[in-house]
Design goal:
The complex is a heterodimer of chains A (about 240) and B (about 70). Chain A has about 240 residues and is mostly helical. Helix content of chain A is about 75%, strand content about 0%. In chain A, helix 3 crosses helix 4, helix 3 runs antiparallel to helix 6 and helix 4 packs antiparallel against helix 5. The N and C termini of chain A lie far apart (about 70 Å). Chain B is an all-alpha fold. Chain B has one domain. Chain B contains three helices and no strands. Chain B is flat. In chain B, about 25% of the residues are buried. The chains are: A mainly alpha (about 240), B mainly alpha (about 70). At the A-B interface, helix 3, helix 4, helix 6 and helix 7 of A face helix 1, helix 2 and helix 3 of B.
Chain lengths: ~240, ~70
């Protein structure tokens, strides 16, 4: 039997990876679209998660997560690509030299007075999918090692710690100009969307979760390339002159 | 009845904008990429590279299309 400390540390680290993905999406969506609807989405996500975990308990490990990964991943991928493209066009038009010192001068992506369903859906999906993955980790590690209590502390602890880090970071992130932020969030949603949708299809990524960093690097390089091309086209910009 | 209908229309419009956006070819290419990946994967052919390749290619094509519109 594995000791409780080993189970706690293992579930904490494994859950932290999923929690980072969750907090990254919430942070990016909140800073870009506004916090009210995003946080309602987070609350609704955790509520659904709590109901599912309470209803299924240990049977949770038998729920097939593949189809959920495929649906959520594909939706994030197609939506992320829209922001990716808009972000490239906006950053190319404004230019890095044109990034404003006062981002509040920029028009917000969401300026309506009603509820922003887009922010709600994005944060809700991120919380439910990643939260379920944390729950799977807790149940599978905890049940196999017969240390469910330690596994729950590790999983919940990871979500709280990473959530606290996100809370600290939300101020600096909110000060990033929205055009650049839209590009960054678009790249992140496209990255996670690509990774999750293919995982949902049963594709094995080289390097497992490490492939996320590879995808991120590929899409950042793609963004830099297209921004350079766009700037040359739109502004007649030539780095040699 | 009118309220329910307007709610259904708003719901459909939301998901249309969420999935299709202003360039339907991107969503279509992603869907084709996922289907091809599933087929290749079921035939035990390494297929993780296909969707990233489609993403990079379609982004360039979509940017060009958007520029041609303006």
């Amino acid at each position: 039997m594995t000791g409780p400390a080993i189970v706690l540390i293992t579930t904490f680290l494994a859950s932290a990876v999923e929690a980072i993905e969750m907090v990254t999406i919430v942070l990016g969506v909140g800073a870009t679209r506004g916090w009210r609807s995003t946080l309602v989405g987070v609350g609704a996500g955790f509520t659904v998660l709590a109901v599912v975990v309470a209803a299924l308990g240990l049977a949770l490990s038998r729920v097939p997560i593949g189809p959920l990964r495929l649906i959520v991943g594909a939706l994030l991928l197609v939506f992320g690509l829209q922001w990716f493209r808009k972000g490239v066009m906006r950053v190319a038009a404004h230019g890095l030299a044109g990034i404003r010192l006062h981002p509040e001068d920029e028009p917000p992506e969401w300026s309506g007075e009603g509820f922003d369903w887009l922010a709600f859906v994005l944060s809700f999906k991120g919380v439910v999918l990643e939260g379920l993955e944390v729950a799977f980790i807790v149940v599978s590690f905890g049940a196999n090692a017969n240390q469910l209590g330690a596994a729950v502390i590790g999983g919940v602890g990871a979500v709280i710690v990473i959530g606290a880090v996100g809370l600290v970071l939300h101020g600096p992130v909110s000060r990033i100009p929205r055009s650049l932020l839209q590009l960054v969030v678009g790249i992140l949603l496209t990255t996670f969307g690509t990774f999750w949708s293919l995982e949902g299809l049963g594709v094995e990524w080289p390097g497992s979760d490490g492939a996320i960093l590879g995808l991120l690097a590929l899409y950042m390089l793609t963004a830099a390339t297209y921004i350079t091309i766009e700037r040359r086209r739109v502004l007649g910009f030539n780095p040699g002159t | 009845m009118g309220t329910i209908w307007s709610w259904i229309v708003a719901f459909g419009r939301f998901w249309y904008h969420f999935i299709i956006g202003d360039d339907w070819t991107v969503a279509a290419a992603v869907a084709v990429g996922l289907i091809l990946t599933a087929i290749l994967n079921s035939a035990h052919i390494i297929a993780w590279w296909l969707v990233p390749l489609i993403v990079v290619t379609m982004l360039g094509l979509s940017l060009r299309r958007a520029n041609n519109k303006t």
